[in-house]
Write a structure and sequence with these properties.
By secondary structure, the protein is of the alpha+beta class. 38% of the residues lie in helices and 21% in strands. It has helices at residues 39-52, 80-91, 135-144, 150-159, 166-186, 191-200, and strands at 6-10, 18-21, 24-32, 60-64, 67-71, 104-106, 115-118, 121-125, 131-133. Strands 1, 2, 3, 4 and 5 form a five-stranded antiparallel beta sheet that branches. Strands 6-9 form a two-stranded antiparallel sheet. A hairpin with a 2-residue loop joins β7 (115-118) and β8 (121-125). α5 packs antiparallel against α6 (191-200). It starts with 5 loop residues before the first strand and ends with a helix.
Length: 203
C-alpha cells in the first residue's frame, strides 16, 4: 500500500522556490508520494476546480503520479494573538472530548448543498469527504450552518441518544476545525466565530 503523499517544500518568502504565474512571483509547494499515490489525479482535480469554482485554488505547475508542484495559496489569515490562544485550548481538548465507543463512517461535508431532497425526503448525499470518526463530529457540522434543525435532532436522539454535553460544549469544539478551514479558504469573515468559541472556553 502506498504511503500518503507528503509536502516536502513550502515557502512563502524564498526566491529559490518561486515561479512566475502571470505577472507575479508565487511561492511553490511540492508534494511527493509513492507509486499509486494519485497525485496526478489531484492535479487534474485542482485544474477542474480552478475553472468551475470560485475557491482560491492553486495553479498546477507540474503533475504526475508521484510528484505534484503547485503554487501556494494564501487566503484568510488568523491574527497572531488568536493563534496563540488556540494552543492552550488544544492542550485541554481531552477535558471535554473523549473516544467514541466505535468509530462511524462519516460523510465529512454534510452541509445543505450536499444533501439532495425530493418530495420531502432525503434523496442523496453528494460530494463526500469520507473518513471514520465520532458521529458527533458530523452532527456538529450539520448544526454549524443550520443544515440540521431542531426536528432532526429530536428524531435522532429518539433513536440514538446523545451523551450529555454535546449541545452545550462539544458541538462548538468540533466546529472549531471547520471554522479554521473556512478562514483559510474564504477569508477573515469567520475569524469572529473562532474568537467566540475561544472565549467560550476561557482562551
Amino acid at each position: 500500500m502506498p504511503h500518503p503523499p507528503s509536502v516536502v517544500a513550502a515557502s512563502a518568502t524564498s526566491t529559490v522556490s518561486t515561479s512566475t504565474t502571470g505577472r507575479h512571483w508565487s511561492p511553490l509547494v511540492a508534494k511527493t508520494g509513492d507509486t499509486g499515490s494519485g497525485l496526478d489525479v489531484e492535479g487534474l482535480m485542482l485544474q477542474a476546480l480552478a475553472v468551475r469554482s470560485d475557491l482560491p485554488v492553486p495553479d498546477v505547475i507540474h503533475s504526475e503520479e508521484t510528484l505534484l508542484i503547485i503554487t501556494l495559496v494564501e487566503a484568510g489569515r488568523m491574527p497572531g494573538r488568536m493563534l496563540a490562544r488556540l494552543e492552550p485550548l488544544a492542550a485541554r481538548l481531552g477535558d471535554w472530548v473523549g473516544e467514541p465507543t466505535a468509530p462511524s463512517l462519516l460523510h465529512g461535508d454534510a452541509w445543505g448543498g450536499n444533501i439532495l431532497c425530493r418530495d420531502g425526503q432525503v434523496a442523496a448525499f453528494i460530494d463526500p469527504a469520507i473518513y471514520f470518526g465520532d458521529p458527533e463530529i458530523e452532527l456538529a457540522f450539520g448544526n454549524l450552518f443550520d443544515t440540521f434543525g431542531a426536528p432532526f435532532f429530536r428524531r435522532y436522539e429518539a433513536l440514538r441518544p446523545l451523551a450529555s454535553g454535546f449541545h452545550e460544549e462539544r458541538r462548538d469544539l468540533y466546529n472549531l476545525y471547520p471554522l479554521l478551514v473556512h478562514v483559510q479558504l474564504f477569508g477573515d469573515g469567520y475569524v469572529s466565530s473562532v474568537d467566540a468559541t475561544l472565549r467560550r472556553f476561557g482562551c
